[in-house]
From TrEMBL:
This is DNA polymerase I. CDD domains: DNA_pol_A_pol_I_C, DNA_polA_I_Ecoli_like_exo, H3TH_53EXO, PIN_53EXO. The lineage of its organism: Bacteria, Pseudomonadati, Pseudomonadota, Alphaproteobacteria, Acetobacterales. Keywords: DNA damage, DNA repair, DNA replication, DNA-binding, DNA-directed DNA polymerase, Exonuclease, Hydrolase, Nuclease, Nucleotidyltransferase, Transferase. Single-chain monomer with multiple functions. GO terms for molecular function: 3'-5' exonuclease activity; 5'-3' exonuclease activity; DNA binding; DNA-directed DNA polymerase activity. GO terms for biological process: DNA-templated DNA replication; double-strand break repair. It catalyses: DNA(n) + a 2'-deoxyribonucleoside 5'-triphosphate = DNA(n+1) + diphosphate. In addition to polymerase activity, this DNA polymerase exhibits 3'-5' and 5'-3' exonuclease activity. Its EC number is 2.7.7.7. It holds the Pfam family 5_3_exonuc_N. Residues 292-323 are annotated as: Disordered. Coiled coil: none annotated. Belongs to the DNA polymerase type-A family.
Length: 933
């Protein structure tokens, strides 16, 4: 072999993986003739950067030739459950191949063979030639190829994947991955495997017996009797078939020899026309071809050199870059009001040329579903902002007709080459839709969510707060424009000059914040969190809010009457216990009754001299056996349910839709959880009879049913995952009762025939640990002595030392960084972690322990929410997502599709993330929320 051959380094790109990643990462965008090209844009962008930075001598992109291969003849159900490609993606496959050819890169595919088989065969040939092959993919099925001369690179994380990473994922070396995959199967590809065998069990079996055939032989021989052995015997043939399905063929006839895959510079004469036809101006500019120039590719590095990064660039819309220093210092105003179609058209042309526009809407109310559009503010650059009024009186005449303004704006909103920047895009898009703007504005960015993705819990995310923090500017603010108190004006009544100053400044600030904040997404490693989750949720949550949920007003009124009657009865009982009448809603009178007259113990006065009578005080007294505090807690609970739900929900029914429309706040919590407001539907008690009755009032429309899907014990599963708890992981994989297993491990009692009280204590510890429960708190919950509770917790940590290690390392992480990370990279800031006050600091430490678990759960359900609309649509189902309540999603579906809908939802949710323990989703179907839940 020549010296040149000895330096052979073939880069193989998993083309199908790139296509689907790009399609799901980038919102829909169309080229000038209307063809959708979001996947083509993402693929082209990724390929351009990879080619520009690659370190190989040879290069190829490998595609799947078709859906059916030899594996389907071997096992007809192989990949049978995979839905067909989305309709708007299918036309893009050919364009992606054109993009590959335009770059002068070989695009290789072969009928009857999967792309993975071609990759395996090329890797084997390079190994035979003594060279090196790098596979750019994170596909687990390709990890079996890793070994001498063959490695992988994760294009998203830009991290190499070698034997150590394979061992971490599968628990075995690459040469044994095939046998492990044969045992565990693959639900996505419909590879059967052996039921009940998970990755850890498979790895343990491999460690003990060495190969699949040895394991199956042992199952027929000296393996200890168990359910696992029975499963191996029963499903031995399925395991053997599974092995044939997952093993990649390394003997595929190569469509092109390796020698023909040499890397070469792209030709501008060939590439530039393709980019221009698609409307990809920014890619051409980055490659230095705007004037027909050819950007030279860097010299190939020596084998083994990883200094040049491989990248799957984050999906970026065609948008302007950051402004230069002088533009960034532009004055805030004075701004102008636009009153003619010609002036608006000219301004929009300027924005189109720049590739970016900030948009803000002004309305006569704060509820998007009812608010009327009063005006639109636009900004094309720092200091370049205008206001288009619809409601204010114009001195020069009647002003611009709203329909004319919308008509002028529509081409810009639909232009994939112009980035639309909002602050709280969900609200603005809802108002624009009601004003006649079609849904689907893209590409867009949301500065509120850009900030939230990086700094959840660190500070608020309003324009005013972010402007002061990042721009050093205090804006006029809404109250500065409308006034406060009784003298507050509706925005339509604000004088034009005043309205223009506020609204245009708001759009100007939004654009400046975009320039200031967006680069931080890369620096904080929050880019994928924002682009693949938070931003993609905007249209999904908007659709949920617009859909609303039907409630039975008569049932709510019956509940209100019942609650009122029960409250009256309880009030009489409480007055008897107190010895005299008093106002149950008065903390002052209650304190006097409890501590001055009844002389109950434990009373504490505030600085004002009043007795404390909050829920914790009443709970302590009730647990000591005092009847009046216990009755009062019950009365308060009924009063809260009546005022917050049964009375309020009737008033929240929209007179037009006859449904209740909650609003989902996307940037309100520290952990990434959504919150529900106006009305809040997330705090209805789950485990009480009254809460169940309220849920019965949430009903489906005639001919429809509600489907509820709820993650089971998701925070405990995340704890087992992040704290690396082998016992709990195994228990979750085997589908055991986790609380009984914990009781068995901690208290040393057998699981079979376990006393319910013992299980209840273990359950309290399991959930209490997540929230940093103290011995005193556990003692109060279980009604035992604090000393005994302390021994329970010590026994728990002794059995699960990984949990204590996790808690201590997480608190240390919070103290060192000011934030903790969820398993998916979300930053949850813990502001009080260094507080000098011990109580506040202890509370912050409990927050730090829980945030990665609660935040991880929020990330998982958001991932599922992003995927579900397309999954349901691809399955031909008409279900609509209505509500998200922490770990639960609720849908409304035609009655005939209920079972199929539940199955699709369960599959998507259970596969929303890959953990070391299985995600389990419980579904229910019913005519009401209570029945479905």
């Amino acid at each position: 072999m020549s010296d040149a051959d000895s330096k052979l380094h073939l880069i193989l790109i998993d083309g199908s993986g790139f296509i689907f990643r790009a399609y799901h990462a980038i919102p829909p965008m169309n080229r000038p003739d209307g063809t959708q090209v979001n996947a083509v844009y993402g693929f082209t962008n990724m390929l351009a950067r990879l080619l520009k930075d690659h370190v190989g001598t040879h290069f190829a992109v490998i595609f799947d030739a078709g859906r059916l291969t030899f594996r389907n003849r071997l096992y007809p159900d192989y990949k049978a459950h995979r839905p067909p490609a989305p309709d708007d993606l299918i036309p893009q496959f050919a364009l992606v191949r054109q993009a590959t050819a335009a770059f002068g890169v070989p695009g290789i595919e072969l009928d009857d063979w999967e792309a993975d088989d071609l990759i395996a065969s090329y890797a084997a040939e390079v190994r035979r030639l003594g060279g090196r092959c790098t596979i750019v993919s994170s596909d687990k099925d390709l990890m079996q190829l890793i070994g001498d001369g063959v490695d992988m690179l994760d294009p998203m994380k830009q991290k190499p994947i070698g034997a150590a990473e394979v061992m971490e994922k599968f628990g075995v070396t690459p040469d044994r991955v095939i046998d492990v995959q044969a045992l565990i199967g693959d639900s996505v590809d419909n590879v059967p495997g052996v039921p009940g065998i998970g990755p850890k069990t498979a790895a343990a079996l491999m460690a003990e017996y060495g190969s699949l055939e040895a394991i199956l032989a042992a199952a027929l021989g000296d393996m200890k009797a168990s359910k696992r052995r029975d499963a191996l015997v029963e499903h031995a043939e399925a395991a053997r078939i599974s092995r044939k399905l997952v093993e990649l063929s390394a003997s595929v006839p190569l469509p092109q020899p390796v020698a023909e895959l040499g890397a070469r510079d792209w030709e501008a004469e060939k590439l530039l026309p393709f980019l221009m036809e698609q409307g990809f101006r920014s890619i051409a500019t980055r490659l230095g071809m705007e004037a027909g120039k050819t950007a030279a590719r860097p010299q190939a590095a020596a084998p083994g050199d990883r200094s040049a990064p491989f990248g799957a660039p984050a999906p970026q819309p065609e948008a302007a870059t950051a402004p230069d220093g002088e533009a960034a210092k532009a004055a805030f105003g004075p701004y102008q009001a636009v009153s003619t179609r010609e002036a608006l058209t000219a301004f929009l042309a300027e924005a189109t040329q720049g590739g970016i526009i900030a948009i803000g809407v002004e309305t006569d109310g704060v509820e998007a579903i009812r608010a009327a559009l009063v005006g639109i503010a636009l900004a094309s650059g720092p200091g370049r902002a205008v206001y288009v009024p619809f409601g204010q009186d114009l001195l020069a005449g009647p002003g611009l007709d709203p329909e004319d303004a919308i008509a002028a704006l529509l081409p810009v909103l639909a232009d994939p080459g112009v980035l639309k920047v909002f602050h709280n895009a969900k609200f603005d898009l809802a108002v624009l839709e009601r004003a006649g703007v079609p849904a689907g504005t893209a590409p867009l960015d949301d500065t509120m969510l850009i900030s939230y993705a990086q700094d959840a819990g660190r500070h608020g995310h309003s324009v005013a707060e972010l402007s002061a923090l990042h721009l050093g500017h205090t804006p006029i603010g809404f109250e500065g424009a409308t006034g406060t108190g009784r003298g507050r004006l509706t925005f339509a009544a604000v004088p034009l000059e005043q309205a223009t100053a506020y609204a245009a400044e708001d759009a100007d600030l939004t654009l400046r914040l975009w320039h200031a904040l967006r680069p931080g997404l890369r620096q904080t490693k929050s880019l994928s969190l924002y682009e693949l989750m938070e931003r993609r949720l905007v249209p999904i949550l908007l659709a949920m809010e617009q859909e609303g949920v039907s409630v039975d007003a008569n049932e709510l009124r019956r509940l209100s009457a019942d609650f009122a009657e029960r409250m009256a009865t309880q009030e009489v009982e409480i007055h008897k216990l107190a010895g005299r009448p008093f106002n149950l809603g008065s903390p002052k009178q209650l304190g006097e009754i409890l501590f001055d007259e009844m002389k109950l113990p434990g009373g504490k006065r505030s600085k004002t001299g009043a007795w404390g009578t909050d829920a914790s005080v009443l709970q302590d007294l009730a647990e000591q056996g005092h009847a009046l505090p216990e009755r009062l807690l019950q009365w308060r609970q009924l009063a809260k349910l009546k005022s917050t739900y049964t009375d309020a929900l009737v008033e929240e029914i929209d007179p037009v839709t006859r449904r209740v429309h909650t609003r989902f706040a996307m940037a309100a919590t520290t952990t990434g959880r959504l919150s529900s407001t106006e009305p809040n539907l997330q705090n209805i008690p789950i485990r009480t009879e009254e809460g169940g009755r309220i849920r019965r009032a949430f009903v489906s429309e005639p001919g429809h049913l509600l489907v509820s899907a709820d993650y089971s014990q998701i925070e405990l599963r995340l704890l087992a995952h992040v704290a690396d708890l082998p016992v709990l992981r195994e228990s979750f994989r085997n589908g055991e009762d986790i609380h009984a297993r914990t009781a068995s491990e901690v208290f040393g009692v057998p699981m079979a025939g376990m006393d319910p009280l013992t299980r209840r204590r273990a359950k309290a510890i399991n959930f209490g640990i997540i929230y940093g429960i103290s011995a005193f708190g556990l003692a109060r919950q279980l009604q035992i002595e604090p000393g005994q509770a302390k021994r329970y917790i010590e026994a728990y940590f002794e059995r699960y030392p990984g949990i204590r290690d996790y808690m201590e390392s997480t608190k240390e992480e919070a103290r060192a960084n000011g934030f903790v990370l969820t398993p998916f990279g979300r930053r949850c800031w813990i502001p009080g972690i260094a507080d000098k006050n011990g109580a506040r600091r202890a509370y912050a430490e409990r927050q730090a322990i829980n945030a990665p678990l609660q935040g991880g759960g929020a990330d998982i359900i958001k991932r599922a929410m992003v995927k579900l609309p397309a999954a349901l649509r691809d399955a031909g189902l008409a279900a609509r997502m209505l509500l998200q309540v922490h770990d639960e999603l609720m849908f409304e579906t035609p009655e005939s599709e209920a079972q199929a809908t539940a199955a699709v939802i369960q599959d998507v949710m259970q596969n929303a993330a890959e953990l070391s323990v299985p995600l389990v989703v419980e579904t229910g179907i019913g005519a009401s929320w209570a029945e479905a839940h």
